[in-house]
Amino acid sequence: MKGIIFTEFLDLVEDKFGLEMVDTIINQSELKSGGIYTAVGTYEFGEMLQLISHLSNNTEISVDDLLLVYAEHLFQVLVKSYPQLVSHYKDPMSLLASIENHIHVEVQKIYPDAQLPTFELEERSDTKMVMVYRSERALYMLGKGLMLETFKLFDVPVNIDYEKLNPDGTEVRFFIEKEV
Ligand code: HEM
Predict the structure, then answer these.
(1) What ipTM score was computed for the predicted complex, to two decimals?
(2) Domain region containing 128
(3) Which residue puts its alpha carbon closest to atom 33 of ligand 1?
(4) Is 109 found in the same domain as 45?
(5) Exposed end of the chain (fewer CB within 10 Å): N or C?
(6) What are the residue boundaries of the Heme NO-binding domain, all occurrences included (predicted)?
(7) Domain contains 77
(8) Is the CB of 31 under 6 A from ligand 1?
């Protein structure tokens, strides 16, 4: 997992819960990195899992809710860092439909070792989309949060539901519908 995901996560933890909480969750985790991350480095995904589950235990906020809040922050950072990847989209549906074939393809060129999910587009109309998320990291709640932020960016109201296609959440079908 890319370092930017860690550095932005720890920045947000510091912002919302204070530097002491950052120290606490780093100390509670067993981290090969020692808890020292650079944006361009690559670290084990297991480190992120430990950090976020310790944050969840210490704050009594579910991992799912933490991932949704984190998605809000991460999306702002990604759009600011890579404006050229989003600037030519005129609506949120086309942006989402293009993650697999454009946005994450470019991300993979920038970071050849990035581990990205896949999104398979099953249905698309003017108002509705069905997409299947697949990733062994099971970060579908982060995905849901990033989808919600995409619609917020264009100021379009949306309803997003999902169904897990397996118990561990490595395959999840999303139902994305514009609110009219
Ligand atoms: C992961 C970039 C938009 C879904 C990532 C990672 C980067 C990235 C750098 C980390 C890869 C790693 O750690 O190795 C971007 C950029 C975007 C963008 C630059 C556009 C500005 C989106 C959107 C979604 C999305 C809109 C939602 C559908 C995800 C998910 C992950 C991820 C769920 C976590 C990894 C996983 O689930 O396996 N993205 N992304 N991304 N991205 Fe994107």
Answers:
(1) 0.95
(2) 89-178
(3) 143
(4) no
(5) C
(6) 2-160
(7) no
(8) no
Nearest CA to 140 among 101, 169, 176?
169
For residue 176, the CA-to-ligand 1 centroid distance in Å is: 18
146 lines ligand 1 (CB under 6 A): yes
The number of distinct structural domains making up the chain is 2
How far apart, in whole angstroms, are the C-alpha atoms of residue 33 and residue 16? 23
107 CB near ligand 1 (under 6 Å): yes
Report how far ligand 1's centroid is from the alpha carbon of 100 (Å): 10
Whole-angstrom Cα distance, residue 173 to residue 35? 34
Sequence letter at residue 22? V
For residues 33 and 43, the answer to whether their CB atoms sit within 8 Å is yes
Which residues, at least 6 apart from 29, have a Cβ–Cβ distance to it below 8 Å?
35, 47, 50, 51, 54
- Dump pLDDT digits (tens) for 137-164: 999 999 999 999 999 999 999 999 999 9
Ligand 1 atom nearest 115 alpha carbon = 14
Q: What is the Cα 102 distance to its own chain's centre? A: 17
Residue nearest to atom 7 of ligand 1 (CA): 107
Q: What percent of the chain has pLDDT over 70?
A: 100
Per the domain annotation, does 80 fall within a domain?
no
Q: What is the CATH number of the domain that holds 144?
A: 3.90.1520.10
